[in-house]
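Lab meeting, item 3. Inverse folding demo.
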């Protein structure tokens, strides 16, 4: 995930600038604003653009605790961000 240096991130993981867009750091509201979630630090975590979008795009979005368990499970299986970010960065 990158916040400021998109080019360095792309070089590190051998991604094109277009491919790096999905890994841009975003502010993820644990409880959506539309459901009363606050714009404060207790309700906001860092998430890449891809994760932020896909969580809320689900028909029945998981609550934050369930989603965290889901992510940890997928990471444990090496199946989170299934494309090229799972490999080791270039030295
Ligand atoms: Zn992500």
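The presenter then showed the designed sequence:
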């Amino acid at each position: 995930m990158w916040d400021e240096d998109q080019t360095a991130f792309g070089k590190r993981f051998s991604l094109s600038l277009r491919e790096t867009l999905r890994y841009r750091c975003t502010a993820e509201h644990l409880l959506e604003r539309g459901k009363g979630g606050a714009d404060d630090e207790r309700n906001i975590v860092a998430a890449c653009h891809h994760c932020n979008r896909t969580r809320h795009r689900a028909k029945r979005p998981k609550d934050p605790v369930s989603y965290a368990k889901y992510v940890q499970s997928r990471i444990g299986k090496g199946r989170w961000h299934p494309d090229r970010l799972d490999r080791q960065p270039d030295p």
